[in-house]
Write a structure and sequence with these properties.
The chain is of the alpha+beta class. The chain has 14 helices and 15 strands. A six-stranded antiparallel sheet has the order 5-10-6-7-8-9. The protein has a five-stranded antiparallel sheet with strand order 13-12-11-14-15.
């Protein structure tokens, strides 16, 4: 089906066949799930559906177009929308809610604040950092303050500023260190003095992974090995000298560099051009502690797990429900986050990762959000949990051959990959293949159902 007015009319025509029903869920109850599912699977909707007149809740998908940038950003198509925004909104509508797509403009903040008062929930689809591009000073804070004021009024915001900060920051790994999904020897550094003292001890004991808080796709994530020197037998027995040598691999492209401990510490604090930093081939600027904790300046130090070469396992979640499990196997090198990976997809019911999923759901039940200082906050509407395999800590007592620990949470505008594959140029949702469209809609439809469920819980329904 093509885009434009004809597509809009065709969508409405398809949808109106069941217009006498309040929602897709209502139609399933009266006609049977198989009948309605078969109907929905035959039709795709490249335009926004009409919201039910008596929608249970009113929601909005919130977007932001970066001023002066083609399409409003590389995450969008020529119509200025994220490719996944319409399917997400339609997922809400199919589940019985009302949903529109609205824009935030940094120079029309008060008008936006008045507009969002009518909604029960906001699904924020703004990439991290976009609100600081071509905008007036303080735009991000004004937007975050508005979202927090919505929450204070009993409305839902996915994901809230607090969830994005606490769950998305790398030091979340320290907060979950004592849970089943964490590593106990995980440390966070917010200043150069602590970094130097602690890293020299952890690095003397065993290979480490150093992760910056900012960046993406493996930028600023370093695998670190001691070069030309034996590790000590027990943590705390030794501390490295400034002149000791390190082998370093950055996970964005798996390139390897050799530096002294002092050069690496200078790079982390002051960048590659600082006196004493040596010569770096990394194309990124270092300065990971810049701005301090309040500005996201931090490094996390974790044990390097040898089985990282087997890849990562990503659990794709909507609220408390798993939609898919993805194994990302690196093709060369050790990193599955830099893009050179083979992907294998598994249903949540696949026995291969049954134990992993059960433990994640158990962690959610047993205080994951509380551990992240997010007590009372709902889970994100769309989030991922990336796991790294490891041997059991106590093989003799273990019931499985492989345990998994969290390497990262992602909850800030997670993209729906099979929609986003066509973004950034001249293509629209209509250019997504039918196979990819219907597969991706499994996720966006789940998001719609979960949004209704989470609002019911919030309202005590």
């Amino acid at each position: 089906m093509g885009a434009g007015a004809s597509a809009q009319e065709e969508c409405k025509s398809h949808y109106s066949e069941h217009a006498k029903y309040k929602s897709i869920a209502d139609a399933k109850e009266k006609l049977g799930a198989d009948t309605v599912d078969a109907y929905v699977k035959r039709h795709r909707y490249n335009e926004l559906l009409e919201s039910p007149a008596d929608a249970k809740y009113k929601m909005a998908v919130v977007e932001f177009n970066v001023p002066g940038v083609k399409n409003g950003g590389t995450d969008k198509g020529p119509n200025g929308h994220r490719i996944d925004s319409i399917p997400i909104a339609n997922g809400v509508i199919k589940a019985g809610g009302g949903c529109k797509i609205i824009k935030y403009f940094h120079d029309k903040h008060e008008e936006f604040a008045a507009e969002v008062e009518q909604y029960d929930a906001l699904i924020v689809r703004i990439n991290p950092g976009q609100l600081s591009q071509g905008t007036s000073e303080g735009t991000q804070k004004r937007f975050d303050d508005l979202m927090n004021s919505m929450i204070a009024k009993g409305k839902a915001v996915w994901s809230s500023p607090g969830v994005q900060t606490n769950m998305g920051a790398k030091d979340a790994l320290c907060k979950i260190a004592s849970m089943k999904c964490g590593l106990v020897d995980t440390f966070a550094y917010y200043d150069a003095e602590t970094l130097e003292k602690k890293f020299k001890q952890t690095m003397a004991f065993q290979p480490r992974v150093i992760k910056q808080n900012r960046g993406s796709a493996g930028e600023g994530i370093w695998l670190c090995w001691l070069e030309g020197k034996e590790y000590c037998k027990k943590f705390g027995d030794a501390s490295l000298e400034d002149s000791d040598k390190l082998k370093l691999m950055e996970m964005n492209d798996n390139h390897v560099e050799y530096h002294t401990v002092k050069e690496f510490l200078i790079f982390c604090e002051h960048g590659p051009d600082a006196p004493g930093a040596g010569t770096w081939t990394s194309t990124f600027p270092g300065k990971y502690l810049e701005g301090g904790k309040e500005a996201g300046g931090q490094l996390v130090d974790q044990r390097l797990l040898p089985r990282i070469s087997e890849g990562e396992v990503r659990v794709l979640m909507s609220g408390d429900t798993c939609q898919m499990i993805i194994h990302k196997k690196p093709e060369g090198g050790l990193s599955a986050v830099g893009g050179n990976s083979a992907y294998t997809y598994y249903d949540p019911t696949d026995p291969k990762y049954a134990d992993l999923l059960a433990k994640l759901l158990g962690d959610i039940e047993n205080g994951l959000m509380e551990a992240l200082d997010l007590k009372g906050e709902p889970l994100p509407l769309l989030w991922t949990c990336d796991y790294i395999p490891k041997d059991p800590e106590d093989p003799a007592a273990a019931t499985v051959d492989t345990e998994y620990v969290v390497g990262e949470f992602n909850c800030s505008c997670v993209g729906v990959s099979k929609f986003q594959a066509v973004c950034g140029g001249d293509k629209t949702l209509a250019d997504v293949s039918d196979e990819d469209y219907f597969d991706a809609c499994k996720l966006t439809d789940l998001m719609g159902a979960q949004a209704i469920k989470m609002l019911d819980k919030l309202r005590g329904a």
